[in-house]
Amino acid sequence: MKLCIHRGSKEIGGSCVELEQDGYRILLDLGLPLDLEFEDAALPSVKGLQEPDPTMLGIVLSHGHRDHWGLLPKVKQPIDVYLGRRTLAIMRAAAPFIPDGYAPDPAVAYEHRKPFSLGPFRVSPYLMDHSGFDAYSLLIEAGGKRLFYTGDVRAHGRKAKLFERLIAQPPESIDVMLMEGSSLSRLDDEGRFETEAEIEQRLVDAASRTPGMLLVACSVQNIDRVVSVYRAARRSGRQLIVDAYGAEVLKATETPSIPKPADDWQDVKVYIPQAQRRMLVRNGIAPIVEAYKGRRIFPERLPDETGKSVMIVRPWMLSDLHLVGAHTGARAIWSQWEGYLAREAGLKFSAKCREFGIPTETIHTSGHADVYSLKRLAAAISPKRLIPIHTFFPDRFGSLFVNVTPTEDGRWEAI
Question: In the prediction, which pLDDT does 190 show?
Answer without folding.
Answer: 80
